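Hi R.,

As promised on Friday, here is the backbone we talked about, encoded as structure tokens. Could you run it through your design pipeline when you get a chance and send me back a sequence?
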């Protein structure tokens, strides 16, 4: 079964995280589920993790109490003025447990004709 909403992460206790700055995918894994953030590459775009604020280890071993997405396709002046990209999208994910909060910032860039967004999927792990 596949579910495509970040709300499925609420209450889940994560025991492994794969990915980091520069990665094109980010996985949160527990005994029953895999939560994946990714971008399906089309042609002339790039989407990857640009920055992580906080410690991903704070999300391991305690239930997720915060999981939200914020995106702004027109954040001006966030990319250097001499950037050659015609279009870019910042997508922010905030996650939290009682141990701390982490913000993962993704940057998608393209010539303006391709998606720059981040996708989410949850899959049950076969027992």
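Update: got your reply. Pasting your designed sequence below so it's all in one thread:
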């Amino acid at each position: 079964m596949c579910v495509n909403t970040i709300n499925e992460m609420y209450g889940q206790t994560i025991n492994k995280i794969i990915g980091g700055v520069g990665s094109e995918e980010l996985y949160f894994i527990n005994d029953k589920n895999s939560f994946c953030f990714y971008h399906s590459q089309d042609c002339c775009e790039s989407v990857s993790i640009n920055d992580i604020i906080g410690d991903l280890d704070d999300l391991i071993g305690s239930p997720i109490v915060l999981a939200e997405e914020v995106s702004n396709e027109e954040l001006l002046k966030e990319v250097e003025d001499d950037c050659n990209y015609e279009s870019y999208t910042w997508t922010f994910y905030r996650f939290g447990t009682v141990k701390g909060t982490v913000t993962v910032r993704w940057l998608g860039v393209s010539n303006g004709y391709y998606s720059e967004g981040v996708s989410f999927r949850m899959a049950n792990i076969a027992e």
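One thing I noticed while checking it: Residues 2-124 form one domain.

Thanks again,
M.
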